[in-house]
Amino acid sequence: MSHASYELKAEARERVGKGSSRELRRNGFIPAVIYGDKQSPIAIALSTNEVTKRIHAGGFMTTVATIDVNGEKIQVLPKDYQLDPVRDFTMHVDFLRVSGNTEVSVEVPVHFVNEEKSPGIKIGGVLNIVRHAVELLCPANDIPEFLTVDLTGAKIGDSLHISAVKLPAGVRPVISDRDFTIATIVAPAAGVAEEEPASAE
């Protein structure tokens, strides 16, 4: 399961558009939108400090949050956020409304363990990571924080596929038509192994 859920306080926004968004940011707020679940979108304003803190804490895109909009509590999952390209502060956030049975598509990072138990790496082989994250379909309230790929026994020339990863119940990869590669163990002299062709995505 991902990071612990949290709550953010928000105010509904009456005015939308560039002018009002700029004014919000000057006053320490971020414009955001809650959409989905067959309901009308709600334009809201959130505290810049609170949202920035959550983004930097990690797991922002895989953690269900509760947003209190003038007393109404709405369960959401962040779907996208925009950063100012120059000053790196948060400009806007999109939230998807979720309920217990909502299935969501999320990018989950991949962690590699037991490198010291890989004969290929022990003799100088290189772990060539093809996918640093995998897009998964998961229940909104049960998103894995990361996927674990065990390198025990991996030799030079081995490929590690999604089928080798133990996925939690109810979780499946978005790419379902093939057993795609997550990483390979390559000989040090071979340079970088070829990734999957982009056309296969």
Automatic annotation (TrEMBL):
Keywords: Ribonucleoprotein, Ribosomal protein, RNA-binding, rRNA-binding. GO terms for biological process: translation. The keyword Cell cycle does not apply. It comes from the Bacteria. The keyword Repressor does not apply. One of its GO terms (cellular component) is cytosolic large ribosomal subunit. Residues 103-188 form the Large ribosomal subunit protein bL25 beta domain. InterPro entries: Rbsml_bL25/Gln-tRNA_synth_N (IPR020056), Ribosomal_bL25/Gln-tRNA_synth (IPR011035), Ribosomal_bL25_b-dom (IPR020057), Ribosomal_bL25_C (IPR037121), Ribosomal_bL25_long (IPR001021), Ribosomal_L25_dom (IPR029751), Ribosomal_uL5_bac-type (IPR020930). It holds the Pfam family Ribosomal_L25p. Gene3D superfamilies: Ribosomal protein L25, beta domain (2.170.120.20), Ribosomal Protein L25, Chain P (2.40.240.10). GO terms for molecular function: 5S rRNA binding; structural constituent of ribosome. Residues 8-95 form the Large ribosomal subunit protein bL25 L25 domain. Part of the 50S ribosomal subunit; part of the 5S rRNA/L5/L18/L25 subcomplex. Contacts the 5S rRNA. Binds to the 5S rRNA independently of L5 and L18. PANTHER family: RIBOSOMAL PROTEIN L25/GLN-TRNA SYNTHETASE, ANTI-CODON-BINDING DOMAIN-CONTAINING PROTEIN, RIBOSOMAL PROTEIN L25_GLN-TRNA SYNTHETASE, ANTI-CODON-BINDING DOMAIN-CONTAINING PROTEIN. NCBIfam families: bL25_bact_ctc, PRK05618.1-2, PRK05943.1. Belongs to the bacterial ribosomal protein bL25 family. CTC subfamily. This is one of the proteins that binds to the 5S RNA in the ribosome where it forms part of the central protuberance. This is Large ribosomal subunit protein bL25. It comes from Neorhizobium galegae (Rhizobium galegae).
